[in-house]
Structure formats: structure tokens, C-alpha cells
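Q: What would this chain look like folded?
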Amino acid sequence: MQALNRREYLTTTPIPELILTLAFPTIMSMLVTGIYNTADTFFVARVSNDPTVNTAATAAVGLVFTVMALIQATGFFCGHGSGNYLSRMLGAENYKEADEMASTGFALSIILGVIFAIVGNIFLTDIASALGPKTAQSLIFTKDYMRIILLGAPFMMAQFVINNQLRFQGSAYYAMIGLMSGAVMNMILDPLLIMGFHMQVTGAAIATVMGQITSFVVLLIGTTKGENIKLSIKNVRFNGHYLKEIVNGGAPSLFRQGLAAIATLILNRTAGSIGSDAAIAGMSVATRIMMLMASALIGFGQGYQPVCSFNYGAGLTKRVKEGFIFCVKYSTIFLLGLGAVCFYFAPNLISLFSKDAAAMEVGTAALRYQCITLFLSGGIVMSNMMLQSIGKGVKASIMASARNGICFIPFILILPLFMGITGVEIAQPCADVLAMLLAIPLAYSELRNFKD
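A: My prediction, written as C-alpha cells:
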């Protein structure tokens, strides 16, 4: 009866009401997560009374974001891969495979996280140098911050998996509680460790990892509540069937986040070669602010994902299409307004994180350029989420690779050769335009097959 109640809820509730109900906790989760990710940058920019040291610390956090993006990519690979499949199985009333997939995806993330932690710390110095710090101080900060982040990789990956699996089961509130618990822990520890105990970037890293561990524990408890699938080692199945489904459903996330990591690496190295730590810091701040703004959009889309995959598995493609149109329409309207506000207040926003004149100039320009094309993200993100949730792995992977890879990397490599730092600042907006042009035919190729 419990499974039947969930099925009736996801397949009969009016689409706008259903998506908004599921999206509210995910939007809140993503906003809080975005805030505490930005908190590291905010407090790290105040580790010293010396502006040069602060700029180096801010640059270091931006550099290590490449490694964090790879950890997140792997976590989402396991989480979206297992979550998409188990949701479709719940929609098709195949509960045995849903149970086994949940435990398998979780176990895989733990194993991969341990590998990241061990290998990353063995090659710590080499990895830190490859990230592109421009001064000795920023290299020291990069190693200090990354060492702790890598140790937390198993917990980071596992909590991404549980969070996504809960969402795909329609338990977005449990996922919200887990993420917000970690966010609160991080935001409490950041000022305490950085400014109270003067632990500089090491304190920021410890705060981040402790927040992730807190989320992991709370989310793990959430899996034992209500109708949620209970994780069990007895249900782990590392066979070809489940691994193939994880790859099919998780590859788009891996491509999206993995290419984001590569793009960030190229961006930082390019910015650093033109404007040293100040340019890296400015671009890092602008990127963090954009991530915070985009977090509401991601949360909105995450409210659509379980609706999409569950109803697709149940054969209700009309509801899948209706949800897609609803999400694209209202996310675009929201992003138009948000982009306009942030464009106007760009200098004020950048100044919250850096007082370095050169960093502020680069950050303000980059933020304003990205605000101009922010409204395109609605169609790009929703197309990717729809294709991924219905199991169209190849198309979803192409779409996921577009914004931060296929379209962005050529721009970030070519434009600075002719336009200097301006080329770095406008690379992402140019990529957004091309990504939207790619999203339209890919999404339409599936939507035209859905029942009206």
C-alpha cells in the first residue's frame, strides 16, 4: 500500500502542483548548499590583514574547485545513474531491482571515494602544481586545502548518492534536511576555524568536510524512514546489468561535472597566465556567485526529475512533456529577472569577497557578461535533465557536455589569444548561446514522440 500511495501521488497529482511541491525542498537545499560553498570564499578572503595573502587564499580555493568538481562528478555519476534507474523501476513496480540498484550505487561511491582519497594524497604536490597556482603562497594554500578535501571524498560522494536516490523516490524533504544539516555545520565552522582559531584555508577545508560528513549521516538515517529504500550490503550487485545502467544514467552527470572541472582548470590557468592570482581570484568569485544563482534553477529541475523518470517508467509521457514545458517556461522568466538584478549590482556582489582592485575589475566584468545569457540556462538545464531522466544516455551526455565542454573549452582556448582577459570573461556567455542552440533539436527529438 505504501508503494501504491507513492505511485498514485507521482502519477495523478497535477503537474504544476507536483513539481512545485517536490521542487521546494530541492531549491532550498541547493540554495543553502550554494551559500555554504560561497561561504568558504567569503571567509577565506579574510584570513589575513595582508591583501596579497587574502588574494592567494581566494585563488587557492578557486583552484581546488577543479578537484571538488571531479569528486562531485563521480558522486553524481553514481547517484544519478542509480537514482534514474530505481525511479523508473518503481514506476514499473519492479521493487527488487530498485532495492538492489540503490545499494549498488551507494557501495560503488564509497569504493571510488576511497580511491580518490588515497591516490590524491599520494600525488598531492603534483596535482596542486598542475592546477596552476601563480605564487609560492597560493601553492601552499592549494595543498593545505586540497589535502583535507581529498580525505573527505568518500563521504562527499556517498552523500551525493543518497541525496539523489531520495529525490528520485519522491522523498525530497528527507534530502533537504540532510543537505541543510551539513550546510549549517559548515557555516558554523567556517568563521570559527578560519577567524577564531586562525587555521586559514585548512580551517575552511575542515569545515567543508565536516559539513559533508554531517549530511552523509543525516541522509543515511533518512533512508530508514517511511517508504524509502533501505540500503543493505546484501543487496549490492556489481554485475554487468546494474553497472551498465549506472553508466547509462550517470554518464551525463559525469560528463557535465567532469568537463566543468577540466574547464575550470583551463580557465584558471588561462586567467593566471594573463593576470596572475588576482585574475584567478576574480574569476573564482564570479563563478561562485553564478553557481549560487544557478542553484535555484538546479533545485527546480531536480523537482522535475522524479516526476519525469517515474511517469516515463509508467508510460505517462504526456505528463513528462507537460512538466518539461512548465519548467522551461517559468525558469526562463525567473532567470531573466535574476540576471537583470545581478547585472546591476555586480560590483557590490564582487566586493563582498575581494577588495583587490584587479580582482574586482575582472570579477565584475565576468559576472555581468554571464548575467546577460543567464536566462538561457533554463532551457539548457531542463533539456539535459529530461533526456537523462528518461534514460537517453547518449543525447543527455552530449547535452551535459555542451555548456562546460564542447562549447566552452574552444572559446576559453581561442578568445583570450585575441582579446586577452576579456576573452576569458566572455567565454562562458558565448558557450551558453551555442549550448542553447544544441539543446533545442536534442530535446525536440524526444518530445515529438510523447503523447499530447
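The two ends are 30 Å apart (CA to CA).
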